[in-house]
């Protein structure tokens, strides 16, 4: 390329060419260049297709300049087959006639910790997940990115009949309307009417491993800023890219913003890679546990976050979809509402019949080989109230398709009368993958966990 540089003069320079080099798989690829103005808005998208004959390949994008091209720092975000491949920033200054009068704005300064905390606190909200009768299922976080638009993790609404949004000013707003979502990428945009209030801005530049970030940790004692420095990145099938961040996140912090030092959001805290499972459990199942057989959970001192590059800029006027419609489409998992009946439940390897004529556990774990033939689910029923009904074990694949179902176990439960049950899971018939096991009592789910089958 001729005259490589990062500063261009509108009205004098005719165009800007941004050139990239990558290393990737052979074959056809789809390249997109998203040109972002100094305000962070995508003003132009240019794309092309290319058949890679070697692992190393390159491409470039061109943007024409004119006297009216806005001055400031521009960014080209390069995507390959829908995934972020890199970004490059450059500066466009005013036209020759205006250049002499133009005064460069002062560089943006990081916020003081106190200002950063106030900014994120004012723009955050608690998302309460409710059942059809209004009972509380769970609490998560979300944050305003517009007057009527709240961004959160998909797991914050999974299985909900309705949502209650608690703003920091004390306002409570009910909603069941979703603007956009992706259950595998773990993000959702909610339509929540409110009066004008503070909201966070999307970061114009991408962040990298080592960049300092923070998030709002919400616990029983209150909220505080927590170190969210990006310590790594990983990409998972179907779920896409995830940030690994320095500090663990409480359950209520899931769905909150990951912020850069300027107070702009760069990600969403949470980032499970399989709908319905916690991020840390999935890391255990995917092989990050020291135990090759997936023994008791090894909780890491960190969390995951969804990079904002996966979330589109969706206006608040977009078509809305109800939570009921998401459930009808099979996007939701049934909520666990009968957990109070079970004192303990776990997958394990069985070692034969015990004194109570059910299988006895030998080794608790979550990873099983097909050569082992079967796994076993053990349940100790310890109800706090009387309950009578049929208990059934069902197993689903990652697409929410049922692959196994047990015979019903007729139970008559009462406080102080502890019972035990066990069911075999025929893992020898399952393809290597991650599966979901659920125990239903009557029409409601009493327990849920995930396990992995290997060859």
Description:
By secondary structure, the protein is mainly β. Helices cover 7% and strands 48% of the residues. It folds into three domains: 7-99, Immunoglobulin-like; 108-333, Thrombin, subunit H; 339-454, Coagulation Factor XIII, Chain A, domain 1 (Distorted Sandwich). The protein has helices spanning 96-99, 113-122, 279-288, 323-328; strands spanning 7-9, 15-23, 27-36, 42-52, 56-64, 72-80, 83-93, 124-130, 136-146, 149-152, 162-167, 172-175, 177-182, 187-191, 214-219, 222-227, 230-236, 240-245, 257-259, 265-270, 303-307, 321-322, 342-353, 359-364, 367-369, 375-381, 387-396, 402-405, 409-413, 419-425, 433-441, 444-454. Strands 12-11-8-9-10-14-13-22 form an eight-stranded antiparallel beta sheet. A seven-stranded antiparallel beta sheet has the order 16-15-19-20-21-18-17, with helices on one face. Strands 25, 27, 28, 29, 31 and 32 form a six-stranded mixed beta sheet that branches. A hairpin with a 3-residue loop joins strand 17 (230-236) and strand 18 (240-245). The model is unreliable at 98-102, 288-292 and 294-299 (pLDDT under 50).
